[in-house]
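#help-structures
NK: newbie question, is this the right format to request a structure? protein is O-acyltransferase
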Amino acid sequence: MHRRGHERSASAEFNRVDRTVRIHNSTERLRSELLNYITNRFEEFSSEMKQAANMPSIDEIIERPVMSNSDLSSINKIDNQLSAQTIASKQSVDIKRSSSAFPTKVFRMRSSIMTELLEVSHIKSIRQIFISILVLLVFQVALTDIFEKGTVDFFLFDLIQWNFSNLSQCLRVWFCMFMSTCAIVYYCFHFWAYKRLSFIPVHSFDSTDAEKLKTNSTTLLIFDWIWFVAYCCYVGLFLYIPVQHILAENYPIVTRIIILAEQVRFLMKTHAFVRENAPRAILYGQIYSEEINAEDLSKDKFNDASNEQKAFSIPHTPCPEFSKFLYFLFAPTLIYRDSYPRTSSIRWTYVISQLAQFATTTLFGYYLFYRFCLPVFRHFNSEHVTLKIFVLSILNCTLPGALFLFCAFYGFLHCWLNAFAEMLRFADRQFYSDWWTATSWSSYYRTWNIVVHDWLYTYVYRDCHKLLGVKYRLVSMYAVIFLSACVHEYIISLAFGYFYPILFIQFAVLGFISMLILPQRTQNNAFNVFIWASLFVGLGMQMCLYSIEWYARLNCPRYVNGPLDYFIPRSFFCHDGGEIKTPLTNNLPNLVLHRQTDL
């Protein structure tokens, strides 16, 4: 009876939270439907009143004089102009309707799922269990060091000190990337958006201006292509210069990951800003040249009741203000909007709590590496190539790999992003969904990191789908997975200093094949077990193979010389003896390389 009472209380609390979420979603949906209904009714009432006010009487229609030849010629000109405007407006409406076939990102005020789940006392106790495990494991390592060596090496944090030894240089590189994004991207886009208006003449249908209109159209096309090439060159230089600097200065792993991750984030933000605002600048130019009537676009916008996203808008300026771009650079989203839902105030106690939990999960990750990777793989030599030790190493790494996954999820996707969202009063906190209930890889990819998934869906999948068509939907889907796998491998390869595409093969090859084989929509719990088992084994394999290759490059001589050594795994050709060359870790302290502790 006591157990049943606990189960009933847990079920009641879960039902209360779930009912609260459903009520909130229903309220938001009802509010949106009411606003759409009121807007449509108001537009219908306005159009009826306008028609009633402009309706002539029957006597006026009968007494209306016959039109002259000059009136007929003027009407023909107006008719030609209206027909051109109608064609342009229909093209814009077709573009809008084709884009509305894909759902767009809707930002609204909502909390993260973990924030809502942690309000339940039974879920909160799970977090307390992880904290107690961390405390006990830290004391275990400390007592082991005291009894075996008489000192506590764990609290020296020499590995962390080495990884952050050049933090000031890392911050300077980040500041240079930030300033280049602010100064070059925004102000060059601002110049392009306003300068192209000077090449757009006011639309005219006289035969004498046809040649001038054609010349200006050609000049505008050349002007746009020049700036497109300049944008591609900027992206290439933004990728090359930071990478060349961190390789020349021999940055440690963590600072490399920080710079590379921020480099990718700035590029994704830049592309989102340009991709969202370039069509608006072009549409503004068409309205400026009177090729498209703004009133027709407004009517089309309000008449399209199915467009719940409200993403289509008439631009009032060719380029948004700098303050909106600056807020977007720090906002925890990769989808550009002129405005986002905001909270009323900042809860600084909540910010401090989230940052403290992020630091705790970082300490937990450091312990996992110190306890499970460093003692096992630091003395790697040719005997580790045997199949027995290889399989056992992968199986032994599944548990710490899974814990690394939980640390990355809770530390970054929940604590770090929620802390920045609270400081910026960013109200939409849906950075992830219930990925732990996924029964297919496609569902896991969509719900694990919603921030990145929204960017890939909006700016990669939709554009590829529009260019290639419905027949090549599978190609568009693989383009998303391939690009994501390439970016992940780009960061890992440059951070570790060698190309070892384990993650790329698991992500872009095995993951995509599993997406095609496994059912996409199923509620069978066996598939959820398969997803969890695949994650654990895959993470254990990554942790094992990347660690083996890292220490093989410390303890084994080169197999080939030159740039080819970067692409050939040294662990495949490791032999006992020989000269040990460590070009990537000259600054790594001897305490990390030669500490005599074991499992």
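mod (FA): yep, format's fine, and the tokens are attached above. Confidence is low (pLDDT under 50) at residues 57-63, 82-100, 301-312, 577-599.
NK: thank you!
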